[in-house]
Design goal:
Layout (H helix, E strand, L loop, with lengths): L1 E6 L15 E12 L2 E15 L15 E9 L7 E10 L5 E8 L8 H15 L4 E7 L3 H9 L3 E6 L14 E7 L1
């Protein structure tokens, strides 16, 4: 199996509906502070559950020169056409960081290094554009993603316990903000 990462252009469909955000939640990050630095431990959840965020058609911002989308595709002799496995959307954020606005890998292709390849390409894009670093946001119950970000050099820089309350007033999810400074 060969994984290729390629930039899509404005004439191409972003193929939003081909992606699934379904995953099992078995643990979460429990936050703390030590020497004025955010730290965390990974703790099991009481009752594991499946979470799924609705997949929406997304404004890919092609009218904005600071937005770029990359696809991860599986290519190989057994496939007549490349199989769409993942996507990352990068953009210039208001604070001049490169921002990972969206990263997703379809469940059947997870744990094959695709998320890492997409993230590495996003980091490269930020460097090529002269940004001082990359930032992103995820949830405390997305432990595999948090581990990926940390393994790529990101550090936990902040959190927000209320950001998802407008969507679901009873949510226990905490938004986590990760940073990679160049």
């Amino acid at each position: 199996m060969e994984i290729t990462i390629r930039k899509i252009d404005s004439q191409e469909s972003p193929q939003t509906k081909f992606f699934s955000r379904k995953s099992m939640v078995v643990s979460r990050l429990a936050l703390g502070m030590e020497n004025e630095k955010l730290i965390y431990t990974i703790v099991p959840v009481e009752l594991p559950y499946e979470r799924e965020y609705a997949v929406e058609d997304t404004d890919y911002g092609f009218e904005n020169a600071n937005v770029t989308v990359f696809f991860a595709e599986i290519v190989g002799a057994q496939h007549a056409v490349p199989l769409l496995a993942g996507r990352i959307k990068m953009m210039r954020w208001w604070n001049r960081f490169g921002y990972v606005e969206d990263i997703v890998v379809n469940p059947e292709y997870r744990w094959r290094g695709i998320g890492r390849k997409l993230l590495e390409r996003g980091i490269q894009w930020a460097r090529e554009n002269g940004y001082p670093g990359v930032m992103l946001e995820t949830q405390d119950n997305n432990v595999p993603a948090c581990r990926l970000y940390e393994s790529c050099g990101f550090v936990l820089g902040g959190f927000d316990r209320d950001v998802y309350k407008a969507i679901n007033p009873n949510t226990k999810e905490t938004a986590l903000y990760w940073y990679l400074l160049f």
